Amino acid sequence: MITIAGAGLAGLACAYELAQRGAAVRVYERATEIGAGSVSRYAGGMLAPWCERESAEKEVITLGGRAIDWWAKITPVYRRGTLVVAPARDRAELTRFARRTSGYRLVDRAEIAALEPALTGRFAQGLFFEQEAHLDPRRAIRDLAAAAEGLGAEICLGTEARDRVTLDCTGMAAPLPDLRPVRGEMAILHCPEVEISRTLRLLHPRLPLYLVPRGDSLFMIGGTMIESTSARAITLRSLNELLNAAFTLHPAFAEASVVETGAGLRPAFPDNLPRLHQDGGTLFLNGLYRHGFLLAPAMAQQVANRLRPETQDENHCQRQTA
């Protein structure tokens, strides 16, 4: 029996991968509802490895390259790409972003309008990362739990992990050296006046913003990365900056209803890359930082390779049934 502490994004992804290989898996989660105790509920759900390369290491592209197909087997994935824009005064930010990334094509005013009619006339140039995608993180977590259970994994909600588990995926609660919190803040807006179908990134020197459609005229906005141990609610200044950035994308957001705000502490190591760490009989997976949905599949496969290596016979069987 492989035991896992934490039924957040990392723990559930590992449970799913291990159960696929026929392992008996039990996951302990102190929260009484899937996703309620996971910082991933505040995530954007962007599967955007090429965009993330702007501020992340090359490994993010390497590890995240197969995430879209992995998630598409579990939950709805919207393969509509990412559109990056900037106000005329911040055109240099668009040039800098392009220089640090790949996998895009330059689009002009007419192409922006064709991709997102709501942005007609608002931006002269942009970058379109056509191969990227997004998902609804809260639904994805629930669907991932259901998929793991469908393969035989047992998820024990409202239950503390026993003293020693096979795998620890408890995020900031894990006793790991060099682990630090990076605060993320977000808001969900309801704005029937705006129709946007794909992830938008608005570049600004001080506060780059991302906006992700959630359906039913709901949009998630986020963008802050604050080195902080505070878990308090979103500050007025941060919320004001997010709302101002949304207004820059489209003035109709000035009349949007703020449905929800939130802030969470995301675990990160100094290099902002995830890490496997063995301590005695426990393997730790941690440090997914702000790339959780993008990197969890590859890291879960690494965990499964260590805890439940596939034999040649198993590989042959999988190829035969594929």
What would your notes on this structure say?
With 322 residues, the chain is of the alpha/beta class. The chain folds into 2 domains: 1-72 and 134-178 and 270-322, 3-Layer(bba) Sandwich (FAD/NAD(P)-binding domain); 82-130 and 180-268, D-Amino Acid Oxidase, subunit A, domain 2 (D-Amino Acid Oxidase, Chain A, domain 2), CATH 3.30.9.10. It has 10 helices and 17 strands. Strands 4, 5, 6, 10, 11, 12, 13, 14 and 15 form a 9-stranded mixed β-sheet that branches. It has a 6-stranded mixed β-sheet with strand order 8-2-1-9-17-16, with helices on one face. Strands 3-7 form a two-stranded antiparallel ribbon. Helix 1 (9-20) runs parallel beside helix 7 and helix 1 packs across helix 9. Residues 312-322 have low confidence and may be disordered.
Attribute tags:
322 residues, alpha/beta, FAD/NAD(P)-binding domain, D-Amino Acid Oxidase, Chain A, domain 2, 2 domains, 17 strands, 26% strand, disordered C terminus
